[in-house]
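Hey team,

Sharing the Transglycosylase-like protein with SLT domain run so nobody has to redo it. Sequence (207 residues) first:
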Amino acid sequence: MIVKDKLSSMIGHRREAFTVAVAAVGLVAVAASSAVSFADDSVPQRAAMVVEQAEAIPAVGAAPAVEAIPAPAPEVLPAPAAAPEPAPAPMPAPAPAAPVYPNNLDGWIREALDIMAAKGIPGSYEGIMRNIMRESTGNPQAINLWDSNAAAGIPSKGLLQVIDPTFAAYHVEGTPFDVWHPVANIVAACNYAADRYGSMDNVNSAY
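Structure output:
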């Protein structure tokens, strides 16, 4: 009797456990069914979101999009500058104009001094003027007809009273070969005085 009661009790407990197990299985099945149902309802929305995100994210390894930059316009180089024309050769300096001397005693002495300087004949304006005033008082046509030279037929002539043989011997090239020419007379007389006395400046009397 006791065994029978224990067996009945054990069977009762097992039934209760089985019932609980079946109920639990039923709950799990219902939950799974609900989960599947919920998942089925949201799948399209989730898929759309995934696609949008995939489009927004560049593919792995793909080069980033680069904004197209317009090609620069070709550079237009300026035409090469023409070679500068050579500078014209400098014009030679014009020859200085020949000095113009007045046709008087001052001009004759100054012209004679320029010629003497070019020929290396010494003499000064003062020395020449002093001797001219003593010999002819500045008269280019003066002539001595009473001294020993005149007696010998070779009278002294011109500003510095030069005889013809002396004029011929000491005439300076570039002046007229004319004892009466005032400039030629001065230059020849100064050339003679330089040879005899060192310079007309050293002559203070008849020479």
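The chain is about 50% helix and 0% strand.

Ping me if you want the raw files.
A.
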